[in-house]
Design a protein that fits this description.
The complex is a heterotrimer of chains A (385), B (174) and C (593). Chain B is 30% helix and 25% strand. With 174 residues, chain B is of the alpha+beta class. In chain B, strands 1-2-5-4-3 form a 5-stranded mixed beta sheet, with helices on one face. The termini of chain B are far apart. Helix content of chain C is 29%, strand content 15%. Chain C has a 5-stranded parallel beta sheet, sandwiched between helices. In chain C, strands 11-19-12-13-14 form a 5-stranded parallel beta sheet. In chain C, strands 15, 16, 17 and 18 form a 4-stranded antiparallel beta sheet that branches. In chain C, helix 8 packs across helix 11, helix 9 packs antiparallel against helix 11 and helix 17 crosses helix 18. Chain C starts with a helix and ends with a helix. Classes of the chains: A alpha+beta (385), B alpha+beta (174), C alpha/beta (593). Chains A and C meet through helix 2, helix 5, helix 6 and helix 7 of A and helix 1, helix 2 and helix 3 of C.
Chain lengths: 385, 174, 593
Amino acid sequence: MENLYPPIVDGKSVYDLNSQKYLKMWHGPQHPGVTGNMSLELDICGDQVIKCNTHVGYLHRGFEKLMERRRYINCFPIVCRICVPEPDTNEYLFAAAMEDLMGIEIPERAKWLRTLNLELSRLASFLMWIGGQSGAFGMGTVAQWTMAHRDFVLDLFEEWTGARIYHMYTIPGGVRGDLPEGWDKRAEKTIAAVHKLLDEINYVMLNNAIFKQRAVGLGVITPEMVDAYGVVGPNARCCGLQRDIRKDQPYLIYDQLDFIIETETAGDAYSRTVVRWKEMYQSIALIRQILAKMPRSGALHATLPNVLHLKIPKGQTYLRAESTRGEYGYFMVSDGSAFPRKVTVRGPSYTHAMALLEDLAVGVNIADLPGLMVSLHTYPPEIER
Amino acid sequence: MKKLYDILSLQFELADFESKRSDLAFCKVKASQAISLLTHLRDIHGYTHLVMLTCVDWLEDKQFQLTYLLHNYATKTDLGILVFIDRDHPVMDSLHHLWKQGRVYQRELHEMFGIDFPGSPGVEEPMILEGWQGPPPMRRDFDTKAYSDETYSHRPRVQNEPEQHMKEQLYSED
Amino acid sequence: MNLRDILSPFFVWKRAFEKPYSINTLSAPRPGAPAYRGFHKNDVSKCIGCGTCAEICQNVSIEMVPVATAKDGDSGLRPKIDYGRCCWCALCVDICPSGSLTMSNAYTWVEEGLDKDVRDTFCYTPGVDSKPWDNEPLGYKKPDGYELLLLDRIPMPHLSPEERLSSFVELVKGYSRELAIREADRCIQCGICTATCPAHMNIPAYIKAIREDNIAAGLQILYDTNPLPGVCGRICTRLCEDVCALSHRGDAISIRWLKRYLTDCVEAEDYKDILKTEIKPLGKKVGIIGSGPGGLSAAYYLANMGYEVDIFEKTAAAGGMLRYGIPEYRLPYDKIDKDIDFITSLGVKIHYNTCVGKDISFDDIYKRYDAVFISTGLFEPYFIGIKGEDNEGVISGLKLLSDVTEGKEVSLGKHVVVVGGGNVAMDAARTARRLGSEVTILYRRRDEDMPADREEIDEAYEENVTFITQAIPLEINKLADNRLEFIWGKAEMHFEEGAKRPQPVLIEGSRETLVADTIIAAIGQGMNFAWMDGEAFANIKFGKWNIDADRWGRSSDQKIFIGGDMFNRTADAITAIADGHRSARAIDKLLNQ
């Protein structure tokens, strides 16, 4: 394989596309996998990728710029759109960053409900990711199952928050409303079904010869690469690093919950799949714990100043939370006016889908490329906020 | 965090230490020393994780505030290094050799704010805005509303303010 | 790879026999969840068109459009929602001050007719344009336990009832800077109040000035429409607060106390610098009869326009009812003086102790001035109209209040009965309490029908005034020990269709007795025109009970204008101020254009 690579001159590979040995190919932008619109510019030799350039911008909606000309409360309905499968992390971080700058403490019950919201959305996001991961390796049936179960989770969200995708539940100051009557029972029924599905996925996917054949050894991340590329979340845990913000810098009420950090050691696509699969069990256990321990009475929302004239004192802060893809962060700068001076969203996909993917893709068979991409669990709107 | 700041102050020209929380602090450094400070923090003090690099446009002060946020996994603390550069001639040293994702951040800042990072690979390639003709759009003097009004057509609408409307309806003669 | 990996996927073959997940929505439509955020509904009878929904909508998807029906405290606008922009965040529902806006759980809408105006495609005004989901009971409503508006008023510090009874010290202490800013922060700036205020004061603007701690700008805004803000900040009837958008689900903004805060913040000597009055004399003269709020207001605006203004006042001090009809604990005299002194500092001359018709004739004034503004107010107390009313010890409420103002020795005795349920009755009763008497108020209708401010009634209760309602006075007899026997009968309420208040009807044979040292009649006042004479008097046309005048206060003689209590129906200070301002503009139009 080594001889396929073109010669490197002055740090750049030089090859002649007219030699007919190489082919330039565009992968995307229409949904390579199910992660969103993004395009990979590939140079291939045979079916081997020898160079990968990522192109983003197909989903650019300029959230950070939009926020600069909106009142804080008016930013609240747009932040969730930065990540479709898991919007609640954005809602939580935006609200938390505001509360941090204003020095507001939210009520205890709101913290529990926020945590429940985050865990449930992690579960929904993971279910969508399994669909992508299995689909990318030709196992469309598993994708159907998980997407259906994701919809069952969305039913729970719909009943609880009034919307399926963009819940807009975690409002600055607290949460919007309580759980409906009998929601716990229906939640238990749904997560029990997800639990059963995960057991089956163990048979049909993780112990599947085809899946193993293609995922083992694909896109290996070594521990040395983790900090050099800014790798976070399951992608870092798959090579043995015990890193989870929920444990390291506990936010909300994660310090009162019992869970472990799931890790693997191989660092390839297969171990990333296993890490996430195990984390889903953790999420299910966490949801059950929260429902069992949660206080059932008390305030839901702290009293904010009038949101129509709300001004936040000058200052800057950074808050992070563990999303399904790893560290999600909001850097918020206030200049004392009614509008945020700057909100920077640090999405985990930013590092995973650009610098890391470009290097991991080299040498990969083109048929495995979607699988590799999905195994990094990238999501383009986080890149081009 | 203050301790670390005091140690670093011996070697670098730091200013304006601000402790936001027990695990988050910000401080300012001269642009010429920033990259060596970052290298120092990464290699000596365990701040191995570059969380993000972003820019805040202080239009009134004619300055860009570059924020390098570093995380130390051992002490679980974050340190934000603020570098102020001239807004009219925005040039900054590149950190692509320290972190692989650095070049992506710098490419974005070049595109969105027009900041140059000489030596950063592909810094001049368009990242998100292929074919964009206008000024760097994240600068505060780029007015998105004016741009959208010029570029797109809107559904016509009339906004009636209750106060004005009631005046016209109820007591316009007064 | 081992054999297990090849066989294990077949473990789940049984799924092939399970029920499919998909559902057929064509044959059985799937309704949204009970609290689903679907298309909007609006209870238009509750909606006040304040536009707060449009204000908070981050997508600018709400347009306020005029509709035909408008009630009191209603702008007549209704939200029209553009579903090409709406993102269903429901912040509009959460912030709706009247609670009229909700959402249904309907989420499908097929728009028919592509030939529609582009402005109406996928746009509708909920509650006005009918939609299939209008009567859908399910859907998103503002959840309990969470509130974006600040519905609770910042409490105003008061003197305790015990402290109050020992003196005539002002009982409302006033907001501090911090409290005032917090109260001002509650305002949503809809501007509904501006239309209701008789003077159309720009209330949202001065509340904004308080919020931004810009006192000077706030004071300038006050003086644009009201030259007695210190007075109104204390005793205004605050019709604005009745229609405040926040009053629908919570407490109205304390508009009155905020106005008071603004004037209290500025020292009298700084008024001139802040208000920057530059007067260019026009060389024309206007005479004003009566120095109550109407006369003072007209004087202020006329003086500002450059007219030479003379006010004729029959008493020794200016202010009219403000001074003689309102007790000091509600409106301290130095606060009246502060406002009046600023008006006189503009060159307005007040001729005290000059009773028109006695010390100077009306005809004289009419001939000397280019225009005359009459605002004499209502100064003739009505009688109860029962036997024994002429006994010594029966006085009018107004007499008591003005005697106290003038510092006369007043002795009421131990037991006082006040007849009436208006503000004068409350003021008289509470003044009597402060003079050491036990007070009973008799009122013809029910407690909730009393025309006095609720606040005054509540404070009277706090000050241990006894209330007897549904009581009709019958007669007064002098007893042997010089005390008075007051006989009254119980009434029952008769509700007639179309009437605002029920009518009290005496229960046949009911006869109760009270013994009192003093009986105070406070059932209203009227006007008289006995002081008028001369050719002008002959020219003016009179209506049934008053001078005929148009809405600008212009009488049939083009030089004569009227305003104040004798002109308007509400008979309060702010309406008189509005009259004065309006007539000042009409006079300017007459003399200067």
